[in-house]
Amino acid sequence: VEASIPEPQREAWLRHQCSGFKDKDGFEREVVRHVETTLARSLYNCDESAAYSACALAFRDRLILEWNRTQQRQTFADSKRVYYLSLEFLMGRALDNAMLNVGQKDLAKAGLADLGFRIEDVIQQEHDAALGNGGLGRLAACFLDSLASLNYPAWGYGLRYRYGIFKQEIIDGYQVEVPDYWLDFNPWEFPRHDVTVDIQFYGNVVKSTDGSGKTVCTWEGGETVRAVAYDVPIPGYDTPTTNNLRLWSSKAASGEFDFQKFNSGDYESSVADQQRAETISAVLYPNDNLDRGKELRLKQQYFWVAASLYDIVRRFKKTRRSWKEFPDQVAIQLNDTHPTLAIVELQRILTDLEGLEWDEAWNIVTHTFGYTNHTVLPEALEKWSVPLIQHLLPRHLQIIYDINLFFLQTVERKFPGDRDLLRDVSIIEESQPKMIRMAYLAIVGSHKVNGVAELHSDLIRTTIFKDFVRIFGPDKFTNVTNGITPRRWLHQANPRLSELIASKTGGHEFLTDLTVLNKLELHINDKAFRKEWADIKLANKVRLAAHIKTTTGVTVNPAALFDVQVKRIHEYKRQQMNIFGAIHRYLTLKAMSPKERKKQLPRVSIFGGKAAPGYWMAKQIIHLINSVGAVVNNDPEIGDLLKVVFLEDYNVSKAEMIIPASDISEHISTAGTEASGTSNMKFVLNGGLIIGTCDGANIEITREISEQNIFLFGHLAEEVEELRHSHVYGTHTVDPELAKVFDEIEKGTFGSPQDFAGMISAVREHGDYYLVSDDFASYLETQGLVDEAYRNQEEWVSKCITSVARMGFFSSDRCINEYAEEIWNIEPLRIDRGSEA
Ligand code: 475
Asked: Sites of the modification N6-(pyridoxal phosphate)lysine (predicted)?
């Protein structure tokens, strides 16, 4: 590396090389320097926000030095890289994570104390980076943490939205959306104004013949938008590896203004062009598990995919290898179908621009891509209308048609004369208008397709993609069960528990090998250990109770059972069943004599989560939860026995506080609908138990921790179809206990019944698609078992400790190693630590 600096200047460069701060003194010096110079603030009015900024800048400087070295190391090693393409990266806060990953939080704590600040307050100043909706986006963030921590040469590629997921406010019990403008001050990104790619849209395709008589297609005309790179350093835990997340921002290709237009007096339209270009990366679509087919979304997808591929190809070309080696150097993972156009774009680059033959190019393409499916919900499967693609990306449409033609020819050869099969698997759906089925395109263009939990992977193999298993054989389809990073979701979110575990398992090794947790089972009868375990849970609950008090005004008893459901609001996740259950509990308590009531176990029902702004039913659910809270929380007969609270604006940093405070959390989706779930893993890892259906990763959690330690209920995935059929064609009656709940709502106990009519009629009149009524009795019964179990605190603590001890499988490190071996064929870059002074 040093030899690349010319000899005459080498000494000077090396003499002045930066090294970042090494001790508390060096850290303080950096913080003060940033306050005084970078922020231009006087030391005498430095508030917590300035302290955060300076502290973040001090760590950013450190990270970028490691980032530089990592990039050099990876380039010199010349090994294969993986590129993770995701429209969402739900990163949350960066400072706490950076301090812990580089092992300098204690140093920073002491340094900040010297300067007059409490580190907790400084950390709280940071705005979440919320470039995602829910599970899919947070999974991408956990994967980046694991990739860096395991020293894989990896880059993330995404969009730099000016507005992340909206901020949720609850006003009079209703959700109100407020824009999330988060870029005001973002110390974690490095603008790369020299790394730009011009992206073409619209225009038309011109056919011509080259010297050898070969037909050449050229995409001409249209408009151009410029992609500018912003790099976010991703530090690994306890390793110098600092990977890169590259986010693209859009701006007008002509720079600030189109000067031609400007000088000719057309000022307005030059500004309009600029704004139109910037619109592409302006806002994250706030839909979770829903596809809406909007033109701007398609523009976002192509803009991001084309810029990323240009960047990847540029890097590959620097190695001067032949094209056939591309898949040996590059693996690209598609996080859902959102980046599927990358398949088409790479085929276009290789054939139209680089002159490769179709078959040779297609062979390279299919060996490069892997596709992860995250949902079987029909409304979430992406389709784009042919006329829209024709208009926006005319050359890509031709390539898609060719891909489909060659694919259908192979199907015809394998299954001659099966017209139904050809229609069913065609990438083009013969509807009005014709639609492109993006999942099918992703399958055909990838060498591996994976689901995210065992049940989910079985379901895609036997339902939505079954024909493709016949065509390509079963080996193309695989499972990689999701995981979570124990750094953020245990060490950072629950530092006291992390220390307790470290003290019993011989240090912090469990943070890099989560299976080490199994050592905890040896201490299950250790009195002092159990006491500290219970104390930590209580302290976490006290902290959450204080948050509930300040944000909602409701006083909750930390000794009560905390029952938590926090996730995006969706009918398939069945928050409606939870709140109907809470109403049922309220009615049951009301019907008791005061003496009987005294014997009951106090419970706090805690909800949180955003509804997509256009999802009317989800908003109705939020409104009912708040309306029930308003009645129950103010009923003197009920007191502490039941509280119902809705926590505003659930996000990553709130999750870090809420999850460690849970006794029981709800993962109660209709069986077969939740692909995996990942918060279920976070709750158990933090010493909470779960009530759940036989769905997604709940099943594998049960396998690991044993049936004794989880509260499962409800119908199984294989029963769902028949039940739905019987609702529509049979005689379908609502469960009697649920009917009582409906009667109470309709009496007006929780406000105007019309406000909740949709939720009731979905069950009673519209076929109860999500089986709320079918599962209600079993749900209530199992909640009764939860109460019973919680009364025996010794037993309960044993269940919690045993469960945590058996959660090793759910680390995203395990998950990333599986991707690396089975799909990407990449290896970690060994680091000789001696040379990293
Ligand atoms: C699953 N989002 C979880 C998680 O694998 C799973 C889809 C289309 C458009 C916009 N957003 C989406 C999802 O499909 C999504 O978030 N899926 C989730 O992926 C990680 O744990 O069960 O629902």
From this structure: 682
Q: What's the CATH number where 229 sits?
A: 3.40.50.2000
Task: Tell me the CA–centroid distance for residue 133 and ligand 1, in Å.
Answer: 9
Task: Point out the ligand 1 atom lying closest to the alpha carbon of residue 377.
Answer: 14
- Mean pLDDT across the chain, nearest whole number? 96
Residue 658 has pLDDT above 60, yes or no: yes
Q: Measured in angstroms, how far is the CA atom of residue 139 from the centroid of ligand 1?
A: 9
| 672 φ, ψ (degrees, to nearest 5) | 95, 0
Residue 299 sits in the same domain as residue 389: yes
SS3 453: coil
H-helix or E-strand spanning residue 164 = none
Q: Which of 375, 464, 573 to mutate to test the pocket of ligand 1 (most atoms within 8 A of CB)?
A: 375
Q: What is the pLDDT of residues 353-401, one digit of tens each?
A: 999 999 999 999 999 999 999 999 999 999 999 999 999 999 999 999 9
Of 336, 338, 374, the one to substitute when testing ligand 1's pocket (max ligand atoms within 8 A of C-beta) is 374
Among protein residues, the one whose CA lies closest to atom 7 of ligand 1: 289
pLDDT of 557-607, one tens digit each? 999 999 999 999 999 999 999 999 999 999 999 999 999 999 999 999 999
> Considering Cα of 407, then 408, then 409, then 414, what sign does the dihedral take?
positive
Distance 553 CA to ligand 1 centre (A): 33
Q: Any idea what DSSP says for residue 217? A: E
**Domain of 430, in residue numbers:** 78-93+128-481
Residues designated catalytic:
374, 567-568, 573, 678, 682
Minimal-distance CA residue to ligand 1 atom 14: 289
Q: Are residues 474 and 565 in the same domain?
A: no
SS3 827: coil
Q: How many domains is the chain partitioned into structurally?
A: 2
Domain-terminating residue out of 776, 792, 808: 792
Q: Any idea which residue has 């419970």 for tokens?
A: 603
Looking at residue 833, its pLDDT comes to 64
State if residue 815 touches ligand 1 by the CB under 6 angstroms criterion: no
Q: Is residue 73 part of a domain?
A: no
Does ligand 1 come within 6 angstroms of the Cβ of 626? no
Query: Quick one: pLDDT at residue 836?
Result: 46
CB of 682 shorter than 6 A to ligand 1:
no
Q: Is the CB of 288 under 6 A from ligand 1?
A: yes
Longest dimension (CA), the chain: 96
Choose the final residue of a domain: 760, 777, 792. 792
Q: Which residues, in sequence order, are CB contacts of 350 under 8 Å at separation 6+?
A: 323, 356, 360, 361, 364, 365
Instruction: Evaluate: CB of 374 within 6 angstroms of ligand 1.
Output: yes
Alpha-carbon distances, residue 485 vs 115, 150, 336, 509, 809 (angstroms): 32, 12, 20, 14, 11
Could you give the count of Cα atoms lying within 13 Å of 144 in the half-sphere of its Cβ? 29
Tell me, yes or no, whether 348 and 437 share the same domain.
yes
Is 813 within 8 Å of 149 (Cβ atoms)? Answer: yes
In a domain, 831, yes or no: no
Q: Alpha carbon of 40 to those of 35, 57, 188, 481, 551: distances in Å? A: 6, 13, 19, 49, 34
Classify residue 59: in a domain, yes or no.
Answer: no
Q: Is 453 in the pocket of ligand 1 (CB under 6 A)?
A: no
Are 595 and 676 in contact by the 8 Å Cβ rule? The answer is no
pLDDT at 835: 47
Same domain, 575 and 473: no
Same domain, 565 and 416: no
In a domain, 818, yes or no: no
Reference 62, options 191, 152, 187; nearest CA is: 187
Beta bridge partners of 200: 224
Q: What whole-number percentage of the chain has pLDDT above 70? A: 98
Same structural domain for residues 472 and 586?
A: no
Residues 477 and 570 reside in one and the same domain: no
On whether both 566 and 474 belong to a single domain, the answer is no
